[in-house]
Amino acid sequence: MLSLTVSTFPNAKALPLWAALEQGIFARYGLAVRLHETGSSAEQRQALADGELHIVQAALDNALELVRTGEDVIILMGGEAGMNDFIVRPGIGSFAELAGQVLAVDSPHTAYALLARKLLATHGLLLDRDYAFRAVGNGSARLRALKHDESLAGAILNPPFSAEAQLFGLRSLGRLDELVAPYQAGGAFALRRWVDAQGEAAVGYMAGYIEALGWLTDPVNEAAAIEILCRRLGISQPIARATHEQLCDPVAGFTPRAKLSRAGFETMLEIRKQAMGGNDREALMRSAVDESLYDRALARCVAADARAEG
After folding, report:
1. Among candidates 214, 186, 188, which has minimal Cα distance to 202?
2. pLDDT at residue 175, as a whole number
3. Which helix (H) or strand (E) holds 86?
4. pTM, two decimal places
5. Which residue, 128, 157, 179, sits at the end of a domain?
6. Could you tell me the CATH number of the domain that includes residue 92?
7. What angle, rounded to 10 degrees, do the helices at 262-276 and 61-68 form?
8. Nearest to 247 by CA among 160, 143, 174
């Protein structure tokens, strides 16, 4: 068995990883995976750069941020378009009403904070002129902050925190991928030097992840998947069931077989350029995408399916 440390956020989008561990899927690909559940994207990026992690399964904009700061990163595959809701306090009925307000974010300069900036700019609101960001950490921390700090007007939240927020009485102004544009959100990335040395491990990881996606979206496994969500996240059955439904939505949930969206990737680059200004590393960011190992991983999954059916 090859030991592999994979980092993710402790939210519902980690379900394929939890399922792959509990169903022995990674083990079938010769991997002993240790899961690192991060508190923030800044922590995650630093740990990858320091060599403490092998693969990160999170918002791919973090890979581009690492490239911007000089790290040689490979984007291995996609995963999902974000499944993010723009959650606000119940008294707020429109984006215009966010003028003068403070929003909770994970990191002000990556991923969904940049999407929020893009969206609010279309409503005439500019960061630091009309509203402010406050970095509070991952989805759990953002939901907790919204519940208990009335100085915060809203946050971008994903499952299960988006469902829990709305049951708590907060409201959604809509999903970001619908409000902004098709967007490549989650996926897997790693340092190029590690991939060059451990390409087979990367292929095995992706094959296991793809197989786990098939397992959790199979209706036969619905009850088991909901039980994992309840146990891992400490949430109720109604929240877990609503979250599972969202995760398995063929359009808005996990991308079938974790295929990278090229259109979504271009949107991600464009939003980053608009928010951060011109960037002389854009060519490097484009070259960070390498789907050759993904193609091998997908072929292994297809072969495994054929053997199982035979």
Report:
1. 188
2. 87
3. strand 85-88
4. 0.84
5. 179
6. 3.40.190.10
7. 50
8. 160
Predicted pLDDT of residue 24? 97
- Closest among 274, 269, 258, 285 to 182, alpha carbons compared: 269
Q: What is the mean pLDDT of each run of 10 residues along the chain (310 residues)?
A: 94 96 96 95 95 96 91 95 90 96 89 87 95 93 94 93 91 87 90 96 97 95 98 93 91 92 89 73 86 94 70
Q: Tally the domains of the chain.
A: 2
Q: What does the block give as tokens for 74?
A: 């490979």
Same domain, yes or no: 138 and 206: no
Single-letter amino acid, residue 127: L
Do both 100 and 24 map to the same domain? no
Place of tokens 């949930």: 253
Q: Are residues 89 and 155 in the same domain?
A: yes
Give the domain extent around 167: 85-179
Q: What does the DSSP 8-state code read for residue 54? A: S
Alpha-carbon span 295 to 121, nearest angstrom: 38
User: Are the CB atoms for 208 and 21 separated by under 8 Å?
Assistant: no
Strand, helix or coil for residue 251: coil
On whether both 77 and 90 belong to a single domain, the answer is no
Same domain for 137 and 192: no
Torsion of CA 174, 96, 112, 251, to 10 degrees: 20
Residue ranges in the chain assigned as alpha helix (H):
15-22, 25-28, 41-49, 61-68, 111-122, 139-148, 161-168, 176-179, 192-197, 199-217, 222-233, 237-247, 262-276, 282-287, 292-309
Contact 64, 268 (CB under 8 A): yes
Domain boundary among the residues 125, 159, 179 is at 179
